[in-house]
Structure formats: structure tokens, C-alpha cells
TrEMBL record:
Listed name of the protein: Cupin type-2 domain-containing protein
Signal peptide bounds: none
Residue intervals of the Cupin type-2 domain: 55-111
UniProt xrefs under Pfam families: Cupin_2
InterPro entries per the UniProt record, alphabetical: Cupin_2, RmlC-like_jellyroll, RmlC_Cupin_sf
Domain of life (superkingdom): Bacteria
Organism for this UniProt entry: Amycolatopsis dongchuanensis
Length: 189
């Protein structure tokens, strides 16, 4: 397999630091699981691969699991990761790792671009790239959800949006685009 070197950001390399310019605009490939999510496939050998994912501000992936683990490098904007009953803020320059089997949700506060490294790797537009799970699977074991940005905690069945938290990862808040409600994407229902 030939070596594939992909340029995914503009770089300005000065003597003492390097700046990357990462556009906030949409990317060429539609991604299942979030309204208006798009992406750009970067490199893959099937076992491990990397893609750019872009969410417009206010959008997000509903709680889900996926076949492999992901290392998520936040490269543009501000977002959220909801994991084990806590909504965390993430911003460009941060990185986190999610175990594929642990339900989680990713949201965008501003337009948000993430470089996702996955193993095993699924194509960016694969319908089985993620499996949505009920909101109740991403709350803590004692039924709570805490938004660390808003400093609010709700106990199920109450959800953060009922306290005005705009970072609530529930499917009602994250919403779905018309394309997602087609029978072909029934996995998202
Ligand atoms: Zn909040
Ligand atoms: Zn909600």
C-alpha cells in the first residue's frame, strides 16, 4: 500500500511556533447521526484510520456507541462531550479518548471540527459507524446528568433542557435532519 500523506489544514510555520488554520465550514461527505454533520475521509487501512468531522454550531450526535474506540482531537471551535452522566466542554487544542462501547454524545457549541482516529476504522459515511442508544444510557448510574458548563444537575426522567441547559444531548434537543428520518436510516429512530 503506497504511503498516503494528506494535508488537512493550512500551516504557518514560524521559528518558535506553528499555527494551523482550520476552516469552520462544511466538509464534502455527509455523516449519519447528526443534522448537517459532514466530514472528510483522511487516511485508513481498514484497521485504523482518521477522518475530519464537522458539526455546525448547535448540532450534535445523539448518544451512541460504535464498533471501535475513538481518539478525538478537537481542532476547531468549542463543543461538548457527554460521558457517564457529565457534559464536558471541549475546545480546539484538546484531545480525548472514548471507548466505543461506552455510550457518549458529541455536541457543537460553535462550529466544531474534530480529527477522529478510530480503530477498527469505519468509513465516514458508513451507516454502522455509530449505533444510537437511548438518552437513559448516557446518564450516570444513579440517574443523574450534570452539565459542567451550566452547573446544573438533573435526575431522570428530567433532562438538562428542562433547566434551560442548551447543551442537553437528548435526541429532542439534538434533533434530526429530514434525511435521517427516512426508512433507510431507520437505525437512527
Ligand atoms: Zn449546559
Ligand atoms: Zn434535551
Amino acid at each position: 500500500m503506497p504511503l498516503d500523506i494528506v494535508t488537512w489544514a493550512e500551516s504557518l510555520i514560524a521559528e518558535e511556533h506553528t499555527e494551523l488554520t482550520i476552516g469552520h465550514d462544511g466538509r464534502p461527505t455527509r455523516i449519519h447521526g447528526a443534522p448537517d454533520a459532514s466530514g472528510q475521509a483522511l487516511v485508513t487501512n481498514g484497521a485504523v484510520g482518521a477522518d475530519l468531522l464537522r458539526l455546525p454550531g448547535g448540532s450534535g450526535f445523539v448518544p451512541h456507541t460504535h464498533p471501535g474506540h475513538h481518539v478525538l482531537v478537537v481542532v476547531a471551535g468549542i463543543g461538548t462531550i457527554t460521558y457517564a452522566g457529565r457534559i464536558h466542554e471541549t475546545r480546539a487544542g484538546q484531545v480525548y479518548l472514548v471507548e466505543g462501547a461506552v455510550p457518549h454524545a458529541v455536541g457543537a457549541i460553535t462550529d466544531h471540527v474534530i480529527l477522529a482516529v478510530g480503530s477498527p476504522h469505519k468509513q465516514i459515511d458508513a451507516e454502522d459507524r455509530m449505533a444510537p442508544v437511548p438518552y437513559e444510557e448516557v446518564i450516570s448510574l444513579d440517574g443523574e446528568m450534570t452539565c459542567l458548563l451550566c452547573a446544573v444537575t438533573t435526575t431522570a426522567p428530567e433532562r438538562p433542557h428542562s433547566l434551560g441547559c442548551p447543551h442537553c444531548p437528548c435526541p429532542e434537543c439534538v434533533g434530526r435532519s429530514p434525511a435521517d428520518s427516512s426508512p433507510r436510516s431507520g437505525v437512527l429512530a
